[in-house]
Amino acid sequence: FPVLSVGAGLAFAQDMVTVGSAWQNQRGSVMYIESVGPDGSFRGVFVNKAAGTYCQNTPYPMTGRTNQSALAFVVNWKNGTEDCKSITAWAGYISGGHMTTKWNLSVAGSTKPDQIMSGVDVFKPLAFEAH
Ligand code: BTN
């Protein structure tokens, strides 16, 4: 877990988005990084904990990219438990050890019209805990 890297002030997202790292946003949601590629790609899962949203508390596959301090990642809110017929894409950067993002949540309309919601999420590295 790259807590020492934070102290060293590393700016590159690929130095912080590492296998086994976990990030929590201000809504309580957590993303876990399970693999990273040499091209700046990464994969993992996202557990949504945001109040007032659907598809909470089970892991959804997440894929992303880093390029220097910049990064972006996507979650399709469909897994074996639930299908919320929506997709979120976050884009942001890592600076000062925090990940600042803006997101768009695209919701497919069924009874309601299609719509895009948007907001800001700030993720901080979750301290690794051994169990
Ligand atoms: C849905 O409600 O259609 C699916 C869940 C969406 C959760 C959103 S994604 C952006 C924001 N940040 C979070 O951690 N959760 C909400």
**Strands, total number:** 8
Helix content class: under 10%
User: What compounds sit in this structure?
Assistant: biotin
Query: Average pLDDT value?
Result: 92
User: Low-confidence segments, ≥5 residues, pLDDT <50?
Assistant: none
State the separation between the terminal residues, measured CA to CA.
15 Å
Q: Quote the beta fraction.
A: over 45%
**What is the structural class?**
mainly beta
Please report the number of helical segments.
2
For the largest beta sheet, what order do the strands appear in spatially?
A: 1-2-3-4-5-6-7-8
Q: Which of globular, elongated, flat, extended, rod-shaped describes the shape?
A: globular
> Helix and strand string, N-terminal first?
HHEEEEEEEE
Largest sheet: 8 strands, antiparallel, barrel
Question: Could you describe the 3D structure shown?
Answer:
The protein is mostly beta strands. The protein is built from two helices and eight strands, in the order ααββββββββ. An eight-stranded antiparallel beta barrel has the order 1-2-3-4-5-6-7-8. Strand 4 and strand 5 (70-78) form a beta hairpin. The chain starts with a helix and ends in a 6-residue tail after the last strand. Biotin is lined by residues 25, 27, 29, 48, 50, 53-55, 77, 84, 86, 88, 103, 105, 107, 121.
Q: How would you briefly describe this protein structure?
A:
With 131 residues, the protein is mainly β. The chain has helices spanning 3-8, 13-16; strands spanning 22-25, 30-36, 41-47, 59-67, 70-78, 83-95, 98-107, 115-125. The protein has two helices and eight strands.
